[in-house]
Design brief:
alpha/beta, Rossmann fold, Nucleotidyltransferase, domain 5
Length: 428
């Protein structure tokens, strides 16, 4: 039976349909008024109609029942209603197609109520508002026995949510499809309207809602704009460790807290950030062992001034303990926090990051921010101390080490004298 649905996809939507046919999983970040809900519902209807299995089951999931009903249900009736003998259940928001397929509109408000589902395909809308457990514990298992597909759609809303996590996962997995549609590239909304929206909404909200900027809504982001430029300029890529270059490390050493280590190489005027490691509540022997296990030829190790603090348990400073373990630290001077932040801002444009090995560090640099004081109508002086702090501190010490070196020496290339390392030993 030939069925014609009253849906005329735009050129971009048509291309998107063709790409989605090649992938089981996809994450789609699209600007407001792109037409993503209409596009995805029609993709769902087509998949349901073409499924020849017994009792195919599909779902569209919105953050709330109200959103599912007010946004998607009318579209579902409009498009699927053109198919003869299709039935709609208003109470359950369910569409029964003539081939036995069933599409149900659901909400994620009570994830546990969705346990036990079996699905051939699902669209999850506005994923940034969805609880992570919905995907990890409920929907992903529901797709397993019939190898169903899942397409996650929405508009970015910062980095501390399921949408960003899935987007990052998808970019690292060739079996997943990712698609980003900023309004400045699609041409769906004319420039005059975009200019007016930007003026009324402000730069931050506009970049989030219309330009699909993941970090735009992190108010007070310290390094966010710089990191975005680095990404745009291909400074965040997968790159190999160069064994001809010595490796330096910069440490933020915590006591009963996180310790973060940045591994970097200097190549002319550029800094190659090749690796990153962070852990918590581990002693110095653990971190020394981490260094030994990496196939790097080390040069210098940098630590902040507080490494000279004497520990009550041993009566020794952490610098002395490190020396006994084979690490001779160079101590960085104590400078004001803002001076260190400024140093890193100046250095970052010279940096290249290995995406594969430094992703937690990259995320931290994007997230690091100052909170806004609504009462005082200003940002706090000090950055917020959270999960991103230690990683960013270790990068700040990297910048201080570079500045300290370049203030005292002309930039020269440091070359490793050997192309091997004796197993289990540190080269200093």
């Amino acid at each position: 039976m030939h069925v014609k649905i009253p849906y005329s996809p735009r050129e971009l939507q048509n291309k998107l349909h063709n790409e989605l046919d090649k992938y089981r999983f996809a994450v789609l970040a699209c600007h407001r008024r792109f037409g993503k809900t209409v596009c995805m519902l029609n993709h769902l209807i087509r998949a349901a109609l073409q499924n020849k299995m017994v009792n195919p089951r599909y779902a569209y999931i919105a953050p709330t029942y109200k959103q599912a009903k007010s946004i998607a249900w009318d579209y579902m009736k409009m498009f699927a209603g053109a198919i003869p003998t299709t039935r709609f259940n208003e109470t359950e928001l369910r569409c029964d197609l003539p081939n036995g397929s069933r599409i149900t509109l659901l909400s994620s408000e009570h994830p546990d109520s969705l346990r036990g589902l079996a699905l051939d395909g699902v669209i999850i809308d506005e994923v940034a508002q969805i609880q992570p457990k919905l995907w990890n514990e409920i929907i992903r298992p529901a797709l397993s026995d019939r190898k169903g597909f899942a397409y996650m759609i929405g508009t970015p809303a910062g980095m501390s949510n399921l949408f960003y996590e899935l987007y990052q996962q998808a970019t690292a997995d060739p079996k997943w499809f990712t698609y980003t549609a900023p309004a400045s590239k699609t041409g769906i909304i004319d420039q005059e309207e975009l200019d007016a929206a930007k003026k009324q909404m402000g730069e931050t909200k506009f970049r989030q809602e219309f330009e699909c900027d993941w970090i735009a809504n992190i108010e007070g982001s310290i390094y966010g704009k710089i990191m975005k430029k680095l990404e745009d300029n291909q400074h965040i890529v997968n790159m190999d460790y160069d064994p001809s270059l010595l490796v330096n490390t910069s440490w933020d050493i915590g006591v009963g807290d996180s310790t973060a280590i940045v591994f970097y190489q200097k190549l002319g005027n550029t800094i190659r950030v090749i690796d990153f490691y962070e852990n918590r509540r581990e002693g110095l022997p653990h971190y020394v062992q981490v260094l030994k296990e990496k196939d790097y030829i080390y040069d210098k190790h940098f630590a902040p001034h507080d490494i000279e603090v004497q520990e009550f348990s041993s009566g020794k400073t952490r610098r002395e303990v490190a020396y006994q373990l084979g690490i001779k630290f160079r101590i960085l001077p104590k400078i004001p926090l803002e001076d260190g932040i400024h140093s890193l801002k100046m250095l970052l444009p010279r940096c290249y990051f290995n995406l594969d090995k430094t992703k937690p560090l990259i995320d931290a640099l994007r997230h690091y921010h100052r909170k806004y004081n609504e009462k005082m109508k200003m940002f706090h002086n000090k950055p917020t101390h959270d999960w991103s702090s230690h990683a960013c501190d270790s990068m700040r010490y990297l910048a201080m080490s570079i500045n300290d070196y370049e203030d005292k020496h002309k930039i020269k290339q440091e070359i490793a004298m050997n192309d091997y390392k004796i197993h289990g030993s540190l080269v200093r």
